[in-house]
Amino acid sequence: MEKFCFFDDGSFYLNQPDQVSYLYFPLANVEGVMSSVTPELSGDSKTSQNTFLLSPVSSEDLHNNKSSRNFWCKINGTSIWSVTGRSAWQQAQKFSRDREETRLEAGFLWHKITRISKALGLKGIITSFVPANHDQVELMKVELTNIGAEAITLEPAAAIPLYCRSADNIRDHRHVTSLLHRIEVLERGIIVNPTLTFDERGHKINEIVYGVLGGNGDILPSKFYPTVDSFIGEGGSFENPRALQDDCLKPMKAGDRIDGYEAFGGLGFEEILLQPGESKAYIIVLGYGRSKEDFIAYGEKYLSEEAYDQAFEEMKVYWKRQLNVRFETGDDNFNHWMHWVTIQPILRRIYGCSFLPHHDYGRGGRGWRDLWQDCLALLLMDPREVRTMLKENFQGVRMDGTNATIIGKNRGEFIADRNNITRVWMDHGVWPLITTHLYIQQSGDIEFLLEKVPYFKDMQAVRGEQKDTLWTEEQGKTCLTQDNKPYLGTILEHLLMQHLTAFYDVGEHNHIRLRGADWNDALDMARDKGESVPFTALYASNLETLAELIEILEAKGFTTIELAKEMEVLLANEDSYGDYKKRQSILMEFCMSTKHKVSGETISISAKTLSNILRGMGQFIKDYIRNTEWISDGKDAFWFNGYYDNLGQRVEGVHPSGVRMMLPSQVFTIMSGTATDEQVKLITKAADQYLYTREIGGYRLNADFKEVNLNLGRMFGFAYGHKENGAVFCHMAVMYAYALYSRGFVKEGFKVIDTLYSHSMDFEKSKIYPGIPEYFDEKGRGMYHYLTGAASWLMFTLIQQVFGIVGKMGDLTFEPKLLKCQFNEDNRAGIAFDFAKRHFYVEYVNEEGLDYGEYQVKKIAGNLGEHFTENSSVIKREVIENLQSDQVYKITVTLGRKGENEWI
Ligand code: G1P
User: Who has the most CB within 10 Å: 39, 278, 640, 801?
Assistant: First the structure.
């Protein structure tokens, strides 16, 4: 199998990509065009669940061609050749010695596939991209070159099957929805305007047109095949169409219309003569419009090579600007790999979790966790709008500390949950604080915590256990006071609501109840008695973080904190902490008092008292976990048990079928500071023994339980080594790395990232383009590529931990944890990033070639204006705010041997 190679700008090439299955590449813009494309131009294109231009594909559809874009050439009036390789005869030769040469080149975000037929003396190149502007189109340029010794005649034809409807109709009403199609042949293409839409929203007037245009300047299509049957003919197929082979199919012409059939973008061009060495190009535009005129206006302007090339260059510049975080270690391949990782959070924002061929949720949308994770990456890449976005997201928190789980299309829009069985994910409360804390540290904007926002309201109450039957849609999705005014609480109060309710929401082992699941969505069958230790631990450190933030507020003069009166009961004294029943009854009392409406009254509590209570709670949890959940295999391996199942039984430890260990249980006990340093050391040994498999990317999510455990979750129904059952699940593995780095276990953290990186880049095994996938399966194949929270966390880990670019209440500090092997041969490592809306490039200089542990920061130098003093360990906010926003500032951070002359 071939390997891919990078060019300097991060683009790469790969020979014979068509010999590998499941490869797909994203093409998108922020206007909502979401395409995927394979080496043979399969994949699809849509702007939402209900507006698919090309027939929706899942990964298994990639090897059939129901939606493949195609481009045909009839050569010398006889044989037909597919530039995408999708003809029956080319497919039949694919594994023979006569196979055609193919080569992929791809960059941010463009895809270029070259196909060479030596036998026919022809080379075809198709370059695809989506312009980085407001146009909802995908563009293809097809370049045909005669590479033979003889002149040839060519009759080219674009062939794009047009689906033009909701993904729901792939089975439901597949045929009758084609009866809705009104198809018109234009001067330069074909447009489909369905009369109605039939989908989950009912029968509605359709508002989107779809179409294909083609040509190049004066070159216009002259034969049109606007329906599937007009192109493939009776008995034909997309891989063996009759249109170019058979005179019995009569093409249509501009101005013709046909209604009620499966639509097709078949655009035939006049026959041309190509001399040896000569080339000809055709531009094809696939897209969407609000009306026919709208679509023609967007689309036609691209129908010349100059216009296409200009849009292509603009798109490249756009993505270059977007990808402003760059890493420069001594390993170029690693740097390029990370470059691709940095585009993934942007892709997740565009595609959600549903719109590439491997998809988690079928219907679009993002979850609560994803929402906050996206903000995490945004904070690191483009923090301009984050404040408003964070504020809007807090409106999804309910009065019982849970949150809306159906997230609307517009920012800050949450949808009422009308399910009878409500799902509460017990981890949901931890993510907003992690993101908000990063925001505050990066910006110094502590007053953000005092902004007031409403609470979300729907029928769900008492943390998913009861329904508020008094609530009606008319009351609205905002929690009201007794006198029917929206109740507004500070962001700090929202955060406290999430953490304090969770603190009391414990099971009989006094850990927080698992409820519908935690981060691991597939731990979903322990609703009654399940408990999650790892996230209890994370709540503990979050409680301490809240205490810290309140202390900062106090130091700024906010000595009292205003809270909803009902919350008073949640600030009970520590006598109740050890008794799970007492904790449960406190929670119940609180939830009942806010079930329908709230009083609207508030209490004031001294900041000092509040922060002491929060610290006490955090400390209690940590001690309690240390005392109760530290387990061993009976030999010399030790780690934390993380779960109780629906029978109230401990999950991890020694079991007749083998040792059971889970990675999340270790990650969050480490990250939260629950595990002592000694314990971290032992955990890493145990994880190496029970979870590490280098051949498939490193640390698995869990050991093999060898049973379908119906008392814990559906994950055990998955075959072992796949997805949430024991795969190397990159998001958790990366969080493991983060946790280890944050505790100073740098070599161990490096090992986690290095194994993920090496495996991802080992194309023979991972079989994915550069980037980090959701997980590696049992054979090591990268799955669910691109759309994963692993990317945001990997960036976060690299920036904050490895390169140690840390915001401290708005100041910039440097705490590198780079190993010697990560510096280049000149003992330098660099990072480009934005901070406080300014661009920086930091170069660490490690002249003595010291390793982590041996060095410390000795000097920070740079042309940072008059307010900056070189012998300081931080760059103050005032210094940064006096810098220009359109310039890149280079900062040199000199590292020297620890302990020797402190500051040079
Ligand atoms: C996916 C989900 C994420 C969930 C995880 C484990 O992970 O999107 O919310 O926590 O599975 O069940 P991701 O796509 O972030 O890799």
Answer: 640
Query: Rounded to the nearest whole angstrom, what is the distance from the C-alpha of residue 601 to the centroid of ligand 1?
Result: 39
Average pLDDT over the chain, rounded to an integer = 95
| E-strand stretches of 148-188 | 152-162, 182-185
- What's the pLDDT tens digit per position in 332-366? 999 999 999 999 999 999 998 889 999 877 677 77
CA angle 204, 207, 211 (to 5 degrees): 125
Instruction: Convert the pLDDT of each residue in 371-404 to its tens digit.
Output: 898 889 989 998 888 999 999 999 999 999 999 9
Q: What is the DSSP string of 375-388?
A: HHHHHHH-GGGHHH
Instruction: Give strand pairing partners of 145.
Output: 123, 279
Provide the pLDDT for residue 201: 80
790 lines ligand 1 (CB under 6 A): yes
CATH of domain 652-801: 1.50.10.10
Q: Which atom of ligand 1 is nearest to the CA of 522?
A: 12
Ligand 1 pocket: which of 374, 521, 714, 794 to mutate (most atoms <8 Å of CB)?
521
740 alpha carbon – ligand 1 mean position (Å)? 21
| pLDDT tops 60 at residue 45 | yes
Same fold, 12-168+214-251+261-285+299-322 and 803-897: no
Atom of ligand 1 nearest to the CA of 367: 9
Q: Which of 170-179, 309-318, 623-632, 802-811 has the lowest mean pLDDT?
A: 170-179
**Nearest CA-CA partner of 537 in 462, 613, 655, 630:** 630
User: How confident is the model over 459-501, as pLDDT tens digits?
Assistant: 999 999 999 999 998 999 999 999 999 999 999 999 999 999 9
User: Between 221 and 205, whose confidence is greater?
Assistant: 221
Q: In a 10 Å sphere around its CB, with 0-12 CB exposed, 13-18 middle and 19+ buried, how is residue 449 labelled?
A: buried
Neighbour tally for 293: CB within 10 Å: 10
Measured from the CB, is residue 718 less than 6 Å from ligand 1? no
Task: Establish whether residue 774 lines the binding site of ligand 1, counting it when its CB lies within 6 angstroms of any ligand atom.
Answer: yes
Q: Which residue's CA is minimally distant from atom 6 of ligand 1?
A: 520
Pull the structure tokens for residue 778: 């049992």
Q: Measuring from atom 16 of ligand 1, which residue has the nearest CA?
A: 788
Q: Domain 803-897: give its CATH architecture.
A: Sandwich (2.60)
pLDDT range class, residue 901, cuts 50, 70, 90: low
* C-alpha 649 to ligand 1 mean position (Å): 26
Q: Does 367 contact ligand 1 (Cβ within 6 A)?
A: yes
Phi, psi of 183 (to 5 degrees): -115, 135
Question: Which residues fall within 8 angstroms of residue 107, CB to CB, at 6 or more apart?
Answer: 7, 9, 10, 11, 12, 316
pLDDT at 798 over 70: yes
**Best residue among 360, 427, 792 to mutate for probing ligand 1, ranked by most atoms within 8 Å of CB:** 360
Give 452 Cα–ligand 1 centroid separation in angstroms: 30
CA of 710 to the centre of ligand 1 (A): 21
Section 512-538 average pLDDT: 97
Taking each helix axis from N to C end, the angle separating 730-742 and 746-761, rounded to the nearest 10 degrees, works out to: 150
- Ligand 1 centroid, distance to 798 Cα (angstroms): 20
Q: Which CATH superfamily is domain 12-168+214-251+261-285+299-322 in?
A: Glycoside hydrolase, family 65, N-terminal domain (2.70.98.40)
819-878 pLDDT tens trace: 999 999 999 999 999 999 999 999 999 999 999 999 999 999 999 988 888 767 799 999
Query: What is the per-residue pLDDT for 1?
Result: 67
Whose Cα sits closest to atom 10 in ligand 1? 519
Domain ranges of the chain: 12-168+214-251+261-285+299-322, 423-632, 652-801, 803-897
